[in-house]
Amino acid sequence: MACGDTRQQAAQNKNSDSTGQASATAKPAIRQKITPSLWVDKDAKAVVDYYLSIFKQGKMKAYHQYKNPPEAKAFGGQDNFETAVMEIGDMEFNILAAGPYFKFNESVSFVINCKDQAEVDYYWNALTTNGGQEGSCGWLKDKYGLSWQVVPVEYYDLINNDDPQVREKAMRNTLKQKKLILSELK
Questions:
Q1: In whole angstroms, what is the distance from residue 45 CA to residue 125 CA?
Q2: Distance, CA of 28 to CA of 64 (rounded, Å)
Q3: Of the residues 34, 93, 128, 147, which has the fewest C-beta atoms closer than 10 A?
């Protein structure tokens, strides 16, 4: 179901929040043991829309706005915040848009295992466009500062190969690249 379909469904099943905007009443089912939760400055819906424009097999499962809750004062006076749940493939992510208090860094990244070079190129270009940053060795940051590793699955065969020359060549060439180019790693 596309994001727009989710909004239509939410409008049909709506409760009004304090802003009068529709919010989904269905509670998302907890399906996975560990769920990444991403804190962003603002606009959870725009964050979800951004990722769903890149990862086509996804959907927004929930979205809520919270206006002026007294508990928000604990976060340095942030009066408004939003939450969303999105699903990409079979993985859910929680999004909390609650102010500029925490930033992403490279200590946590998500790996996109790509079937071929064309898929590597697609994700690399999609995530580095509009404010993303290329890193090295297949790493990048998207426009929100979230770190990703875009890796062709055949790469793992190379770096785990029984032949040390194959492994070393792959690793040596990895260190020379920004976006991984599989043909240059072999």
A1: 22
A2: 12
A3: 34
Element (H, E) at 185: helix 182-185
pLDDT of residue 23: 46
- Number of other residues whose CB lies within 10 A of the CB of residue 91: 15
Write the single-letter amino acid at 49.
D
Distance CA 151, CA 114 (A): 6
The helix/strand count (H/E) of the chain reads as: 6, 10
Dist CA 109 CA 139 (whole Å): 9
Give the position of tokens 């060795």: 137
Instruction: Tell me the pLDDT tens digit for each residue of 52-61.
Output: 999 999 999 9
More confident residue, 168 or 19: 168
What pLDDT score does 71 carry? Answer: 66
Asked if residue 67 has pLDDT above 80, the reply is: no
Q: Look up the CATH number of domain 109-185.
A: 3.10.180.10
Domain ranges of the chain: 3-97, 109-185
From CA 124, how far away is CA 148, in angstroms rounded? 9
Yes or no: say if 88 and 55 are a contact pair by the CB < 8 Å rule: yes
